[in-house]
Amino acid sequence: MITVVWFRHDLRVQDQPLLQRAAALGAPILPLYVLNERWTRPGPEGFDRLGPAKAAFLQECLEDLAASLDTLGLTLSTALASPAALLSHWHQSTPLQVVTAQADAPEEQQDIDTLRAEGITVHEMDTRTLLSSCALPWDDAFPATFSRFRKPVERRGGPPVPATEGASPRLNAADSLPLPEWAGSVVGALGVRRGDWQRDPQHYFSLHGGEQAACHWLQQYLFEDHHIGHYKTTRNQLIGTGYSSRLSAALAWGCLSVRYVWHSILEYEQKFGGDQNSYWLRFELLWREFFYWSQREHGAHVFRRDGLKIFHKTTSMKPGEEDNASCYWQAWCAAETGLPFIDANLKELLATGYLSNRGRQNLASFLVHDLGLDWRQGARWFERHLVDHDVASNWGNWAYIAGVGHDAQGGRRFSPTRQWWRHDPDADFVRYWLPVMNGLSRQQILQLHFAFGDEPGWQGYPAPVISLPESDREVT
Ligand SMILES: Cc1cc2nc3c(=O)[nH]c(=O)nc-3n(C[C@H](O)[C@H](O)[C@H](O)COP(=O)(O)OP(=O)(O)OC[C@H]3O[C@@H](n4cnc5c(N)ncnc54)[C@H](O)[C@@H]3O)c2cc1C
């Protein structure tokens, strides 16, 4: 009997319950990462789930994990395959048990259920959450809104299980198992998708994948640069290095445990004093937590167009706009909607795999409430490109803005012009991503947002694909 530690979104060795449980089971350990072949298949819009920046980030995470495991005496096996098929195949010749995280999404649950049906024992652990699944502070019904979730969690004093320090000692390694011929190479698949994507060395911020880089950045963000000290006042900015924590990708891939992050913030508060800024970073981690448990509760409903049906909203296209859907979608994918603020955000996403929260909210609002497209197209676009893609946070936030999730107000439209005027006061953000705007004043850039029906304007920049409401002109 061997124990396969099946890593998914927990690519670290510190504060790692999977390794701790595997060590306690006593059998030789085989660490495994399977790049799910479903991720490499095109979805309804014809693209897969691994955009270039995301593929590069995952590649770095896996290299870092392999190096860390090596120091524990373990060799990481990787494969491009269906995880359930691979593990079942191995189990036929080598009896195995599996230690893995709780499923994030229904398709992961199906894999775990398939393994159990094959007679494989699967030990599921909480690796991604602040709360523990055996001690949730609500009874039958999952809270309908974030505040109804947050209050009881905060009353309990935050995460019940403190982060445990340090990695396990050297572990008992199993020999690696031969890959079946139908399994592919992860390095190859990620390399193809990464293509010639490179980080822009001129870019103001760039986070590498992996536990080491993430730990280093957390220390720097909190204890060296003290950026947390202005978090609440700057978190809505669009451009710069420390306006928000940039921990999302490390948390999404599990390079850092969220409990470790939480306790590091508490440590900061003890050393330097807590205030509304440090509290607000923990507050935002509770949003992540909320969407995670909502996803667990609502399962496949999260992926339906009419969503969770908590507040009974349905979305549809505006009358007469169906014919334009394909042209709107093409403009979105090419980052050429003709609205400078929207295009700047789309370009940042494509170039870096990251986007500020403000940018995400505006893109989602624009796609749903201005273009009238199916919100799930936007969610899939984000899933492909975001280096921090997290199924619960992404789909939960999109559903929220579309009005089919947890927003009691039934969805949010953000005026792209008012938002831009307010959050990009010197137009630095738009000019950075659309250098063609460099010769224009802020007022002139604003006017471009209303040039619907005109010929391409300033240096061939396209005219807007839609006409914004007149009220969007009132920016001050
Ligand atoms: C349409 C849309 C899609 C999104 N998709 C994702 C996604 O795929 N993955 C993801 O991690 N976040 C997603 N978010 C949430 C949020 O935008 C990002 O977590 C945040 O911008 C990441 O930057 P940061 O780490 O600097 O965040 P900070 O502002 O520093 O926040 C700290 C952490 O709190 C969590 N957090 C903050 N805001 C939210 C939120 N609204 N919902 C859930 N968690 C939050 C994240 O883990 C984040 O790293 C999405 C938001 C929207 C509006």
- In the sheet with the most strands, the strands line up as 3-2-1-4-5
What class do helices, strands and sheet pairing give? alpha/beta
Can you tell me the CATH class of the largest domain? Mainly Alpha
Tell me roughly what share of residues is in helical segments.
40-55%
- What percent of residues are in strands? 5-15%
The bound ligands are:
flavin-adenine dinucleotide
Query: Which sheet architecture does the biggest sheet show?
Result: 5 strands, parallel
The strand count comes to 5
Average residue pLDDT: 93
The H/E string reads EHEHEHEHEHHHHHHHHHHHHHHH
CATH architecture of the largest domain: Orthogonal Bundle
Q: How many separate helices?
A: 19
Report, as a whole number of angstroms, the end-to-end distance: 68 Å
Number of domains: 3
Outline the structure in words.
The chain is of the alpha/beta class. It folds into three domains: 1-127, 3-Layer(aba) Sandwich (Rossmann fold); 129-162 and 212-298, Serine Threonine Protein Phosphatase 5, Tetratricopeptide repeat (Alpha Horseshoe); 322-473, Orthogonal Bundle (DNA Cyclobutane Dipyrimidine Photolyase, subunit A, domain 3), CATH 1.10.579. Helix content is 45%, strand content 6%. The protein contains 19 helices and five strands. It has helices spanning 17-25, 52-71, 83-93, 106-117, 146-155, 186-194, 211-224, 231-234, 248-252, 258-272, 276-298, 325-333, 340-352, 357-370, 375-385, 391-402, 416-423, 428-433, 442-448; strands at 2-7, 29-36, 77-81, 96-101, 122-125. Strands 3-2-1-4-5 form a five-stranded parallel β-sheet, with helices on both faces. Strand 1, helix 1 and strand 2 (29-36) form a beta-alpha-beta unit. The chain is globular, with a radius of gyration of 23 Å. The N and C termini lie far apart (68 Å). The mean pLDDT is 93. Residues 235, 244-248, 251-252, 281, 284-285, 287-288, 291, 356-357, 360-361, 364, 382, 386, 388-390, 393-394, 397-398, 401 line the site of flavin-adenine dinucleotide.
